[in-house]
Design brief:
The complex is a heterodimer.
Chain A lengths: L6 H13 L13 H16 L5 H4 L7 H14 L4 H18 L5 H11 L5 E4 L15 E5 L2 E12 L6 E8 L2 E8 L5 E3 L13 E11 L4 E5 L3 H35 L1 E2 L2 E2 L4 H29 L5 H27 L1 H4 L4 H14 L4 H12 L4
Parallel strand pairs in A: 1-4, 2-4
Antiparallel strand pairs in A: 2-3, 3-7, 4-5, 5-8, 6-7, 9-10
Chain B lengths: L6 H17 L1 H10 L4 H10 L17 H14 L3 H21 L2 H13 L4 E4 L15 E5 L2 E12 L6 E7 L9 E7 L5 E3 L13 E12 L3 E2 L5 H7 L1 H4 L5 H20 L1 E2 L2 E2 L4 H29 L6 H14 L1 H10 L1 H5 L5 H8 L9 H11 L1
Parallel strand pairs in B: 1-4
Antiparallel strand pairs in B: 2-3, 3-7, 4-5, 5-8, 6-7, 9-10
Classes of the chains: A alpha+beta, B alpha+beta.
Chain lengths: 377, 380
Amino acid sequence: MDFDFNEKEKLLFSDINNVLKDYSDFQDKESDILVIRSKMLDLIKRLSKTDYFKPAIDNNSDISLTSCIAAMEIAAAKAMSIFPAIELSVRLFGYLISNYTDNTNPIKNDLLNKINSGDIICSIAVSEDSMNIVNDPFKTNAIIENDNIIVSGLKNYVVNAPIADYFAVFGQMEEKIAIFIIKKDNPGLTINKRFNTIGYENMAISKIDFNRCQISKNYVIGPFAGTEILDKFRMWENLILSASSLAMMQTSFEEAKEFSNVHRTGNKPIIAYQEIAFMLAEMLTLIQTARLLTYRAAWMMETNNKEMNVLNHCAKVFNAEASEKVASMAVQILSGKGFISGNKSESAFRNSKYCHIAGTSTEISRIKIGDSFLRLK
Amino acid sequence: MDFTLTKEQTMFKKEVIKFAKKEIVPRRDEFELKSEFDFESFKKLGDFGILGLHLPEKYGGGEADVVTTVLASEALGEAGVDGGLTLALGAHTFLCADTIYCHGTEEQKEKYLSGLIKGDIIGCMGLTEPDAGSDVASMKTTAEKKGNKYYLNGSKIFITNGPIADIALIYAKTDPSKQHEGISAFIVEKGTKGFTAGAPLKKMGVKTSQTSELFFTNCEIPQENLVGIEQMGFLMAMQTVEWDRSALMAPFIGGMTYALTQCSDYASKRYQFGKPIGHYQATKHKLADMKIFIEAARCLVYRIAWCKDQGRPLNHLEAAIAKLYLGDWSLSPTNNAMLIHGGYGYCHEYGMEMMFRDSRLAPIGGGTSDIQKKIISKLM
């Protein structure tokens, strides 16, 4: 057992802090998606100078998943408003290409090079109208016509859709799960209007229609029997959202703590009042507990532990709920200032709902955890 | 970062579970219903080696590392051993025996440790007083030195093992003019003139654990019974905090694992409206919440144990966080365990109501949740 990071891992954290030293996150909602795209590419280029994205993409990477979580927390704290979008574009998209595309496929290295160099933005389209892939199989479907693959369907809530160069689209082919890589200029692809969201308002999210999008076989990953690829993808997504939650909690806590040391009432800083001090103590308790639980979940995934799925869901649920609670308490401590838009705690409070819903939702996660113990026929 | 347990640790934990299920748990309900201490089971714990697991072989201990010791405590809970017996073990081993080992003279160690480790004698620790709980430094029990004797006057309350202890490790002020710095520690043997234990207090939970007041009226003890040096008592008491936040909390985590297993079994077999109740999402969610709590708490406790094994000074902030989390967040999962069992959960037979009552001590004993919040807010 060892709860410490080694020197190499600490060096990674230091490298990430260095490349993000002068990076500044969006302060308000950005309506120009080209500005969002430009900022994302800048951030990707910075992080690509380090080993940050290697876990998940590079199978020879010796960076542990626990240190990956810690690294993601650093990046998420600096770039809170677009962090999930970056991770989907690079790490998750790269994960699918790297791990599930044959080495002889010519698109593999081409795409990986582009992803790693920060030249493209990618998007992963999973959700459909039902939002619940567990109960309802994908309706997005592909058929084979004259050696081409024709993809049709509709995907909702697709992060990066308005700004992406490539899409990894989950669907069905020959009644199995497959992923279709579709370029943005595909004639059958329609990207709908960008959604306004309550949180992560600088992520560009929209619905996409696929109307007989034609792609070559090289652009198909799979098909796969079973759901392993989707399960593994979700596990990674859950870890990313957990790391994002940790960053939000830490940021909210620090903001609230700083404010409570400075803001005075009754001739003393409000931290001198037990109610405030105790709230901060509860917040820190949740953060520390969440952090250790997430590290353990990451370690279990890395070591292929038999409980890795359960712990992954435990960490996701805990982090999502804790981040909402911590952010809410921070807003409360900030009081009137907390209610006015533009502070980190208020953003975190709104963003935290995304962590409940995205990845494996909190409700589905609980069901999966419960099912792991029940021996029901 | 690595969360691996060694093969030996994993095997040992399994052995403890097996031992406890066979030797201890079958007796649990009988003693819980009578609110009586199970002396025989306690002695069996001694014979198995659990009462002195981390203590040196020289005195009959197992010289186990802290993580292994914590795993053993967790294993007892996981087997279904009640909170009363594990609390008695905790007070005996970690609050009494360990303090004598860490700070006692060689004569004291020779005299008491072997008996404590075997379970031939039972130990307790007296710190809390009727008017000095969270504010322990305001204790009023005094130890006045006259010649080569000390005379203790005062009383203690809520002392685990108080009515049944053969020796008591008592904290008293040798310098009443001071606060924390005036406290010293003494060994007081049962039967010493001027020392009496009150009747067992009737409690909501941990019923097999015997708790009482201790009274000192010009209780004369030889100076050789001073543990460590004068005025160092408070620091000694604080050193037990590490054990309090790891080995004493571990049985509760194990107990929740036991409850989760019981609940899963019950939910798989109990049919309502034509389906096992485990089919219903509300049940799955409750099970999930229990599991989330267990895993979250486990990480906190293991970390404290591991840090102690590395020889690091206690991180009071982390220790307070662990205690606060376990104390305050444990009430919901134990409630869920009862609810899943429905009417049966309200009855003694299934053990869930016992866990619910036992868990209520978690935010109170060993430093209340409010005190933990005070410590955290001060240190953060």
